[in-house]
Amino acid sequence: MFKINCLNKIANVGLDLFTDNYKMVDNFVDANAVLVRSSSVHDLELPPTLDAIARAGAGVNNIPLDKCAERGIVVFNTPGANANGVKEMVIAALIIAARNIVGGVNWVNSCGQDPEVAKLVEKNKSKFSGTEVKGKKLGVIGLGATGVLVANAANKLEMEVYGYDPFISVDAAWKLSKFIKQIKSLDEIFRECDFITVHIPLTDSTKGMFNKETFAIMKDGVKILNFSRDTLVVDEDMIEALKSGKVHRYVTDFPNPNVCGVEGVITIPHLGASTSESEDNCAIMAVRQVMDYLENGNIKNSVNFPNCDMGICTQAGRIAIFHKNIPNMISQFTATFAKENINITDMTNKSKGQWAYSLLDIEPPSTEEIIKRLREIDGVLKVRVIK
Q1: Whole-angstrom Cα distance, residue 55 to residue 78?
Q2: What is the C-alpha to C-alpha distance for residues 124 and 120, in angstroms, rounded to an integer?
Q3: Residue 128: exposed, middle, or buried by beta-carbon count in 10 A (0-12, 13-18, 19+)?
Q4: Quick check: bond before 327 cis, omega within 30?
Q5: Cα angle vertex 244, ends 241, 247, to 5°?
Q6: Eight-class DSSP state of 157
Q7: Closest CA to 299 of 80, 73, 83, 81
Q8: How high is the mean pLDDT of the chain?
Q9: Which of 11, 50, 143, 157 is a good FRET partner for 134, with 20 to 30 A between their CA atoms?
Q10: Rg (Cα) of the chain, in Å, rounded?
């Protein structure tokens, strides 16, 4: 019986996938796996029973990835599950950034009770004029699941689309329209584009990437859309760029006290993936990944361990070993089984950075003694008996 805890409300369409082998529990400390959306896991004590954390969404900055890796806890996310919802919001923000719709609506609300409002509108509407997006240059930074959809949609709006992603996946490359100009330098996007939208994770190298130095490269009057993370932008530098006219408008899905209310900033209350369809898709993907991992040891869409798939185990036993990505680990594992006269019928070993994951099918089933010996090998983080 696997115990599942939800730190946030997870769509029932996903939770209903759990079979009778799973039990929902209220306490985090009792769980074998945890489903989470926005709640922070950083300050929670990770229980020894915990094997997996699944983030129903793409961003995982609310989860201590290194701490989890050191304890052999697989952290999953659900890339692409909410991509269409975010894409639609970005396209809406693109139009909002080009046309002063928000300012116009707010102005009408302020004088809407005036009996002469119709005349006032005709007199003042020119104050809220904007530009069309057709023919304008859009730079899309990050061509993952969402970035590709945004780029393709903008191309259909007859924009000239520049895409930048030095790590674009094969799958994303296949989906990207042939009309998108793939750019090898961020500076080229900064120099050429009238609109810039960013779709990359927050890392040490991307934090604060929109700053006074990069603003200086950009066109005067550029419009910037941020539906990734607020700290990709240095707020003080953005405010100065807005005051000087370097940036005409900044649309962000991440309100904070620094930018809320600043002229030229449109703050959206983190609605990018807030659709019922996105929540359903994320829940379904998260639950399926957790079930496949707990039942079979297979890993898909982990952010701290490598992907690994050996299908459903048909042998007498299956063992998962989390370990450091260092030489001589596999030979020590196989030698340990050989000493116990246990035959390995199939195995795979994958690595991701400093961590590695080995999955072994064996016959006959494992014993407590061999599990103990595996755990004693220097460099082993965790051993799970799958079957």
Answers
A1: 7
A2: 6
A3: middle
A4: no
A5: 45
A6: T
A7: 73
A8: 95
A9: 143
A10: 25
Contact 87, 68 (CB under 8 A): no
| Alpha helices (runs of H) in 245-359, residue ranges in sequence order | 276-296, 329-339
Residue 196 tokens, joined: 């810039």
Amino acid at 368: E
pLDDT mean over 277-291: 97
Q: Is 62 helix (H, G, I), strand (E, B) or coil?
A: coil
The pair of three-digit structure tokens given for residue 139, joined into one six-digit string: 């730079």
Distance, in Å, from the CA atom of 179 to the CA atom of 157, rounded to the nearest integer, reads 12
DSSP 8-state class, residue 266: E
Query: Who's near 44: CB < 8 A, 6+ residues apart?
Result: 28
Q: Which candidate, 43, 49, 139, places its Cα nearest to that of 94? A: 139
> If you search the block for the tokens 């707010």, which residue do you land on?
106
Q: Which residue has the tokens 């890392």?
A: 203
Report the share of the chain in percent with pLDDT over 70.
100
Q: How many whole angstroms separate alpha carbon 77 and alpha carbon 215?
A: 32
Closest by Cα among 321, 368, 365 to 344: 365
Residue 203 confidence (pLDDT) above 90: no
- Tokens found for residue 241: 């760029």
Distance from C-alpha of 88 to C-alpha of 72, rounded to nearest angstrom: 37
In this predicted structure, the answer to whether residue 202 has a pLDDT above a threshold of 90 is no
Of 230, 224, 232, residue with least CA distance to 248: 224
